[in-house]
Amino acid sequence: MSLACGIVGLPNVGKSTIFNAITAAGAESANYPFCTIEPNVGVVDVPDDRLERIHQFVVTNRIVPASIKIVDIAGLVAGASQGEGLGNKFLGNVKECDAILHVVRCFAKSDVIHVSGSVDPKRDIEIIELELQLVDLETVGKALTRASKLARTGDKEAVAQKAAYERAKELLEKGISLRTQTWSKIEREALQPLFLITMKPVLYVANVGDDDMQGEGSMAEVVRAHAAATNAEMIPLCGDLEGELMSMPKEERAAFLSDLGMQEPGLNRLIRKVYDLLGLQSFFTAGPIEIRAWTIHKGDTAPVAAGVIHTDFEKHFIRAEVYSIEDLEQFKSEAAVKAAGKLRVEGREYAMREGDLVHFLIGK
């Protein structure tokens, strides 16, 4: 499943620093605008302690976590929608992503240049969001022109599209991001082929200093309030500290985290948030060859989940045998789970639950 989350923000807010820490891909990070020209892409394992919980009771050769794709997109500036700072190219990279991580600078280090000359989270958010809205406005405007011509012929689909595009255009002209509004199924179907940026789900990342790790300072609060007002979520993260942590040998990280009063790296929380932002969930298969977390969309049925393992499995699906990690922990083995009557047999209509342990029975 090749869904991707793009990291956006002004230059020098810490996007590449956070990307490097997440992916350990070594993307260039420097103290000048447009350090990142081509988008950096990394595939990231999703931290999940349930894999080890399963491993306690299932002997296996390897453990394979779920993964997601993260794209580090070059810094956007005011006027990006008109081509400023190579903006059109960068905004094209955003359109190709399925969700957005919007990094906002919430630290005041004087040795790190700010493209606007000062640190102001509210202004910085508004600059980025205006540019994204302007790109969508241009896209919607062109689509509306085409749909209006067809609608005059009585084409029913074009009539529905025209109505959706007119509403979207009106909102964008008012500076309202489309994801903040409620849309009908018909409207969403009309808008989906346009890949509108402001329809994508957003997670705001307040890149805080090491003196505000919990994001309780005034700058982080500005980001939190904006996220709450625009139907989004926010997470505070100290990019520099997380980068330092990821550069350490694994055996030293636990002690470092303990000194900071943290149970896990903040990046783990961020990655799980991104996974959820993309509308994803995991199910597990467990056996002697591997224990693996598989990625599906929330609400996917058992045949669709089987098709993630192999495309033919969806077509030839017969049934699924499902149990929970909690059942495995209680009864200590899959055989004992089955003997206790806790192994459920599910058919084609079964909607997979988060964390299901499953065997699929496939015909020929």
Instruction: Please report the distance between the alpha carbons of the first and last residues.
Output: 25 Å
Structural category is alpha/beta
Q: Helical percent range?
A: 40-55%
Provide the low-confidence segments as ranges. Answer: 25-37
The sequence of SSEs as H and E is EHEHEEHEHHHEHEHHHEEHHEHHEE
Give the overall form: flat
Percent of sequence in beta strands: 15-25%
Main sheet overview = 6 strands, mixed
Radius of gyration: 23 Å
| Alpha plus pi helix count | 14
Task: Calculate the mean pLDDT score and round it.
Answer: 88
Strand order of the largest sheet: 2-4-1-5-6-7
Number of strands: 12
Write the layout of secondary structure elements.
Layout: E1 4-8, H1 15-23, E2 40-45, H2 50-55, E3 63-64, E4 67-72, H3 87-95, E5 99-106, H4 121-151, H5 156-173, H6 185-191, E6 202-208, H7 218-229, E7 233-237, H8 239-247, H9 250-260, H10 266-277, E8 280-286, E9 291-297, H11 302-309, H12 311-315, E10 317-323, H13 325-331, H14 334-339, E11 344-346, E12 357-362
Parallel strand pairs: 1-4, 1-5, 3-9, 5-6, 6-7
Antiparallel strand pairs: 2-4, 8-9, 10-11, 10-12
Helix pairs in contact: 1-8, 4-5, 5-6
